[in-house]
Design goal:
The protein is of the alpha/beta class. Among the domains are: 40 residues; 222 residues, no CATH class. The chain is built from 6 helices and 22 strands. It has an 8-stranded mixed beta sheet with strand order 8-9-10-12-14-15-17-19, with no helix packed on it. A hairpin with a 3-residue loop joins strand 20 and strand 21. Helix 3 crosses helix 6. The N terminus is likely disordered.
Amino acid sequence: MENNETHSDELLLYDPLFETPPDTVIRDTPGRGFWGKAPVKKALFVIVLTLFVGSSIVLSFRSLTKDRFRYEETEDGVMLTEFVADKTDTVLEVGPVFDRDGQAVPGKAVTAVRQFAVCGNEYTSVILIGKDVREMPDAAFYNCTSLLAVLVDPANPAFRSVEGVLYRQENGRLTELMLYPARNYLYRALLGLGEKEPADAAQAEAFAARALQLEETSADWLDAQREDYPAQGGPGLTEAESAALLSGLRYGIAPEVTRIGEMAFAECDTLFEVTIPEGVKEVASMAFFKCGELRSLDLPETLETIGSDGFSYCEKVPDIFVPAGVKEIGHHAFFGCDGADVIHMACAENDPPVLGQDWVPKKRKLFMHDVPVLYGEERRGSR
């Protein structure tokens, strides 16, 4: 009788890919003459491998030692495309064009800034914008975690700073809030305590040093605010300092603004209250993304558009009311707003805005479910 038994060891060892062991030895290639000789092929292999390794080392070295400032010539002037900061860069001047030695190049000035040109900067406290800068996107200075203020030369017609907050302007009128710096509460607190706004880089460095000292002194006070806002007083702080800091945690947007730009307040964990004035028509994408300490949200009747992730992960906002004038709500606009139990919509259920995917928060009971949306609601309280 034929034995059909198959040993388990054979099944485990067999793989059709390696039924014939791969030939890893460099051999002569018949018919290719000189170039087919094994020694020649070995030499070529070594040369190619050496070039590859060498180029990788050079590129790696260049990436570690690249210029701190990178610029690009444009038709209208010079664009700042990237800035790589180190611990000494407390102040960044966006105006002069600097060479590799950090010296200003005579006759040249920055006229534009690329999106994300200064991104993830943990060292710079103050950015100075020169008078010649005309083009700058909303997210030019995204996620600069130590930033106190962006200060604009008063002669600049395109941009303006108000207490360290960056605005876009047209014909002298503020039109858009572009950036609320992550540590602006300290800057405004010091102004409230009588400090003067810095007028140049040297004064900005001195101001940043005072802000750092105040931040260290008020660390326990800030922790108390996160737990029980508004908490009273604080160890090591005077009554005036406590009052100034508390005022700094609240921000009122300039009344003439019509747009809040992309990522304007994104990931700001020291914004506890914000006043959005009537006249604002658009809250752009990620404008208040991850403002985890924001305690209230009062949207104006003039609002028409809420961008994608506009208020996502504002976890402590307890109540959301969407005015009737809102015509579009982007995807994930209120996603992660876990403090809200319901969304109140002023519009009728048969006439909702254009709604993006997962625009409502989700709650967990037995399973994840969308927070209820109620239509035909009225605002509770007056603006």
